[in-house]
Structures are given as C-alpha cells and as structure tokens.
Amino acid sequence: MTRFSALFLVCACLSLRGQDAAPENRYAAEVANLSEKSGLTFRFAETDHFVWAWTLPDAQVAPLHKVAEDAWKHFADSSGVTEYSELWKSQRGPEKCLFIITTSGVQHAKAIDWYAEKYKPWKGFKDAASSQSYYVSSAPRVASLIHLKPLSPSRLKYVIAHEIGHLVVQRYKFNNQVPPPWLEEAYATYLEGKTLGRTDCYCFQGTYGDTAKSLEKLTELEWKKWKEAVVDQAKKRKDKLMKGILPLSLSQLGSDEVGKSAAVIEWLLDKDKAKFWAFVASVKKAWPQDYQMNWTEQKSAIQDTALKDAFGFGLDTIDEEWRASFSARKK
Predict the structure, then answer these.
(1) Exposure string (b/e) for 24-45, b if CB count within 10 Å is 16 or more?
(2) How far is CA 145 from CA 84, 133, 166, 167, in A?
C-alpha cells in the first residue's frame, strides 16, 4: 500500500462525520497533498465546520475537535451565522476552515511552505507566519497553522478556541483588510474564556505581546477571576480608557488592555448581540480600503460612529457606560 492510499484509509477511519474519504473528497485530497509535498505524514479528520491535519498523536488532537465546534457554536449563537459557507470562503468557494497542527517548528515551517506554494497568499506571509507558533490566514484559504511547542498538549485547546476568535472577526463581513487589533485580540480572548471557562493568555507570553513577569500567573486563569480583576481595576480608575486602547498595535497590547477590551466586548454582547455584530459590520464597511497597518484618526472616527449607530454612545462615554453596568449589578 502506498503512503497516499494509506492516508486515505486513515481519513476514512478518523473522519468524525463518518464519511468515506474517497478521492473526490477535496479535503482529504488537500491533506494528502500536504503530506506529499511536505514529506510528513498528516492524519485527517473533518468536523461540521473544520478540516483537520495533524502530526501529533491522535489522542492529543481528538479533544480539540469538540473545542473548535463549541467555540463556533458560541460565535454562531451570538452572530446568527450558522453555516460555514457564510464565513469560510476561498477562491474555490465555501470551504471549511483548515487546521494544521504539527509537533515542532521544523514541521511548522514545512506546513507554511506548503500553504504559501499552494495558495499564493500575500507577499509577506511566510515571514509573518514563520515568526509565530500560531498563525491564522483569513485568505486565500481560511486556515490556522499551529505547532505544539512551547505548549503542552493539554494547553492546545486554548490556542484552538483563541485562533477561531481571530478568524471569525477577520472573516465576518470580510473586507480583505486587517481588523482593529483591540477588537480582534479581545474577541479571541473572550471566545477562549467563553468556550473553556479559562484563558491561557498565551498571546502575551512571548508570542507578540506583553511579557511582564506578573503575567506568569495568568496561565490557565479562570475567566471569571480575570473579569473580576478587570472590574477591580476599573473601580479604582486604573483601567485604560478605550480611546487609549484603540490606537495600539498587536505588539503593544498587554493583559490590561486585552482584559479591559474583552470585558467591554462581553458587556456589549450581553446588551444586544445583534447590535454588537452590526457595530463590527459597520466598522468593516467603512474601513480604509488601502492597506494601513498603523493607527489613524480616521480609524478611531469610524469606530466611534459605528458605536453610536449601534448602541447610541461613542468612545467618549463607553467607559462610563461600561462602569455603570457593573455598579448597577451591585445594587
């Protein structure tokens, strides 16, 4: 039996949907091509909204399938998006999001090379993806490329939920632009906490954000306790104002900024889910069409207008509105 045919046998056995992985199954063929071109043996599975390729032991990956679908459900329940075809789209049409999970940086690099060669993403893709252990690509093929190190297998579930948070913000009302960093990172952290009840804060442990020693205590932190810490800061007026958070890049966002932003996002969703996603849609629609990585006054003005249109208040008063919400709960 050739390695190619063996892969398809594995596909048939591992598919969570119980489908035969016949050659016409484009997802199985895609993973087979990944194996062939990378020289690695990837296993394959397909769940309701995701496609999986991995080199880790099966027992370490199987629990991640449920985490991903649970994260999707939280997003779907709030946004009204139920079908993957509404969000995951590529040049070939609707396609389930692809997760590629490898055991090492060397394998990660081979997966990145395969993706770059097969899908021809933006010019700086390889350099950007190679510099991170976990990388999401919202186009041209929706995918997340992850390698295990430096995490333990048990902590991968946090990465999965978090990366889905990044992708849904990027892909919702897709405009082929980079979303506001605070919104993307904070929603990803919120979805991680909402899905698992805890958050690992791995983005701030050497990935691209804050590396303060105090953050060592945030590993697998209970979501409820993090929110309580954020509220405690706000009561002491030590929290950062949203107007000051909006201009920050991903590399400038630390736990204080993301914690505050995630708490605000949860509050907005609790107020009115439809209005929150209307806010996101308005921001996407008005966002500058020329690529602008840096913050501009225009970007703040767009978000201010979108907030006012959706909720009736803007950046000047959002912090006081949020503080009033937990003050009212105490009464």
Answers:
(1) ebebbbbbbebbeebebebbbb
(2) 19, 8, 13, 12
Give me the mean pLDDT over the 75-103 stretch.
Answer: 93
Instruction: Check whether the bond before 247 is cis (ω within 30° of 0).
Output: no
% of the chain exceeding 70 in pLDDT: 85
Integer CA distances (angstroms), 116 to 38, 130, 148, in order: 12, 11, 20
Predicted pLDDT of residue 191 = 96
Bond into 288 cis (ω within 30): no
d(CA 55, CA 44) in angstroms, rounded, equals 9
Please give the C-alpha separations between residue 77 and each of 70, 80, 81, 149, 248, in angstroms, as whole numbers. Answer: 11, 6, 8, 32, 29
- The answer to whether residues 99 and 72 touch, using CB atoms and an 8 Å cutoff, is no
pLDDT tens digit sequence for 227-280: 888 888 888 888 999 999 999 998 888 888 998 999 999 999 999 999 999 999
Classify 47 in phi/psi space as left (phi over 0), alpha (psi -120 to 50) or beta: beta
How many Cβ atoms from other residues are within 10 Å of residue 238's Cβ? 9
CA distance 218 to 203: 11
Taking only the tens place, the pLDDT of each residue in 6-64 is 343 334 334 333 333 443 489 999 999 999 999 999 999 999 999 999 999 999 999 99
Show the domains of the chain with their CATH numbers.
3-172 (3.40.30.160), 183-330 (no CATH)
Beta-carbon contacts of residue 312 (< 8 Å; ≥ 6 apart): none
Backbone angles phi, psi at 120, to 5 degrees: 50, 60
Tokens of 213: 């020693």
- CA–CA separation, 250 vs 70, rounded Å? 26
Q: State whether residue 39 is helix, strand or coil.
A: coil
* Residues 225/196, Cβ–Cβ less than 8 Å: no
pTM attached to this predicted model: 0.88
What are the two backbone dihedrals, phi and then psi, of residue 126, each rounded to the nearest 5 degrees? -60, -45
